Queue: 4 jobs
Job 1
Amino acid sequence: MTETPDPKHGERFRTWMASGTGDPTPAIPAATVVLLRDTADGIETLMLRRNSKIAFGGMWVFPGGRVEEADGTDDEVAIARRAAVREAEEECGLVVGVDDLVAVSHWTPPPVTPKRFSTWFFVARAPEGAVTIDDGEIREHMWVAPHEALAQRDQGVIELAPPTWVTLHDLGAATHTADALARARALEPLVYVTQIAKTVDGLAALWVGDHAYETGEDADGPGPRHRLVMTETAWRYERTTPEGPAG
């Protein structure tokens, strides 16, 4: 990986979030796949850096993209699976089997997001083969341990969107790929419909279970937390309620 720390990473993300005004646009169906492999030091996932001139430009993401007509018109999850497989091959040259994908979550961004993608997240074991990128939409790639990716974000080396951050955070509980897949299969996919609120520490992405989720008001007040606080430096996940995300 060739990027160096950039203190403006957090500023650019906050500016991008604040640039959405007016009525929310319909969310575009999309899908992404979290590809995992095992190393002597633990689990790693494949991440790609997007061209700065396209949606989520400059951010590090998992392989994925919008659903296309060729992906079908039947069941929503089945369509998303095919989209994830197609995007993985297009963006990084890896062929993943549709049946190898395990759905882990679905994300709908907040209304203030300038370009909204309603995205299914899947997890799968990375297939054999070399990663190849086009140096167009995708500029770089790396295999990275989830905790290391989060550390690099806090150091200003890479940029992440909240769904990517939370997914990496959750992967930190898995000791190896089989463990991560077993955890995913044991749970129903989590549904995140994000709202944004201002706190004394910075913007926070809120989900069901947070006391300020419905209104966005008094976010710093007492009450249950289920949020990602996006401070000037380190981001912080807070969850004090046992309820899973939904709605």
Note: Residues 211 and 222 are 8 Å apart (CA to CA).
Job 2
Amino acid sequence: MTPKSPMDRRTFVRSLSAAAAASLAGPAAAAARAPGRSALEPVGIQLYTVRSLLSADVEGTIAAIAGIGYKEVEFAGLAGRTAAGMRAILERNGIRAVASHHSMRDVREGWPKVLEDANALGQRYVLVASLGGADRASLDGIRAVADAFNRAGEAAKAAGLQFAYHNHDFEFRAIDGVMPYDLLLERCDAQLVQMEMDLFWIVNGGQDPLSYFAKHPGRFPLVHVKDRTADGQMVNVGAGVIDFRGILGRASQAGIRHWLVEHDRPSDPLADVRASYEYLRGI
């Protein structure tokens, strides 16, 4: 179907709040959480957020991230380091790699190296970060991408890894009456191709994350935790209108295992990721 744009913000927030109340109010949820421990722990970060700092000082930036409290990272490149070298830096700082972002070119031309590096880093997931050009221009392009994803996922599985795809908002703009994201979910093998839901971008595309969790349970092991104002600005987590408590209330249904903070355009990267971390620690 054609997505509504802009989305009815009040309806979206009410739906998330209702889910939160139903899922978090019960004693079982409270009992499952250790005193003083956030239900979101361990909180991770997509290192694209601090790319400007990594380009100048890899070791210092990773140490700073660890100092804030982050325990997991997702890569968008290795800032000139080898996989083994980067893993050593992470281990010195008590951080583990869980995932990495890659391009369709990597899938088509360099996938064995991607899988090799992923295993060297000790991560579980390898992802395609986005689509461009002909890959997203038509339904035939989306179908071809889905088939390529299935092949990449099969190779990842053979290497002991899990393939996934990260959305933006173009996937929620209908082409000939079909939503590209829905076509990907339908055509991709659920065992070979899972999803990393970017919460900002799906809301920006006029869609409700909870609806996708309900329609495709267990399909979303990773989420990008990023916030959005009512008028569409990307802000630190907790400074916008997305109800993360509501999303947390559906984490089991969605299959979420990793909560990865991201901000595409941070004004002060370390201050921004600290603010997001502190908000999430309070949930």
Note: Residues 1-37 have pLDDT under 50 and may be disordered.
Job 3
Amino acid sequence: MTIEEKHSSILDYCRKNKIFYLKADIQIPDQVYNEAAKLLEDGLFFDHRSGDGRGWASSTLHGKAIDVTHYDITHKPDYHWTRAAEYAPSMVQWMKEEFPNNGKYGRCRFMLLKPGGFIRAHTDTHKYTPGMDLKSDLFGAVNICITQPSNCYLRSVETKEEVPFKPTDVFWFDNGPFHEAANFSRENRFHFIIHGGSNKARKQLFIDSFEKVHGII
């Protein structure tokens, strides 16, 4: 079985079994926390989707611009490393040299959930309207934990299953089903989200990570 066939087979298994997350067998450098904190200190986090919650902000590292946090397909041809790259050399180096990629990342952002902040139940299914089928793609979004204070969660709305984040951990998670997040602590919660840039090596990392957790199917 080729890498492509095995990757597709595992994704089918994950859809059928409603697997919400998968821990990747890779981690980010500890110093990424200092980079995120400096961006916040210098006022370079910007409100993100305020209608979906409270205390949610973002700083775009790769995209249209540091303060353009939303998705717009017309922006994709203009994506580049933004001003945030000056603050985040460790994260940029990891994305270029450690995390498997094809050199064509999509939107990649530092994400902040402030103390007392929350994100209401939502789906990332494109142009969702009530009654339509939700997308299911465990491989689509990468959510990286920079900090995870106590009393924080990202969870499935249906099952209340939480992603078991710990600092520097890297997860794939299925953002198609309805999910929600909250920070009931007194500390900032920093995460990082990667879209795009997949290649054969990343698919192999996904396969190896899946088999490490779930075994060979």
Note: Residues 3-68+76-125+134-214 form a domain with the Jelly Rolls fold (CATH 2.60.120.330).
Job 4
Amino acid sequence: MQWLGKSIGGLIGAFVAGPVGSLLGVLVGHQWDETTTGGRRGSVRAISQLFFEVTFEVMGQVAKVDGRVSEDEVRVARRIMQGMRLTDPQVQSAIEHFTRGKALNYPLDARVGAFAEQLGGNGELARAFVQIQLQAAIGAGQVGPEKRQLLWRVASSLGVTRAELAQLEAVVRGFARPGTAQPTPAESLDAAYRVLGVTAQASDDDVKIAYRRLMSQHHPDKLVARGLPQSMIGVAEQKTHEVRTAYEQIKTQRGFK
């Protein structure tokens, strides 16, 4: 499936930077496709294939978990497909996996478990997957208790902790998103602390340590050097941008250098 790397790259690029990001994601995803060798457990190709399939299956399961799939959820799923720049047959494949995920007998634990096995403990890819699911759920509107519980079930199966899930949600929600109400200064500052994973009671030194640790963990160059596929670089760039924005806001409010 030569198109899978391009698709995943396009998906992540579209979330990060719209059509331009999608195009860049497709280009780096193409290089991923060109360098993969198929079939073996844990190979980039195997991970790529499951990433594509399970992305839409879980998206369908999350959309259906509260009883019905809303028009907004369908719209968001379609927007994701468009962002991936899929061909008509590939869109049909994505729709089939989304539909499969909506089924009452969808084997969620088995499919996510197989995906986790292919990832082989690659936490950054697991967090990238969960971040995309959060983006789809949040993009469709309010995330109710059923959806939140299901998202946690998926995240935990992939080794993502509650603290990491909360940080990912803070990154997805960001600060002043277009088309959403402007947060109050207090809300924006609370979001900044959540992004860094510290409380407002943390010392200045603790804030600085958290910032440096997150920037080191999510620095795109370092992650690529450790084996992160180039097509995932957009998620890392988004994280570092949000971490830096959060830190600058807290630094300004506290008045330290």
Note: DSSP finds twelve helices and no strands in the chain.
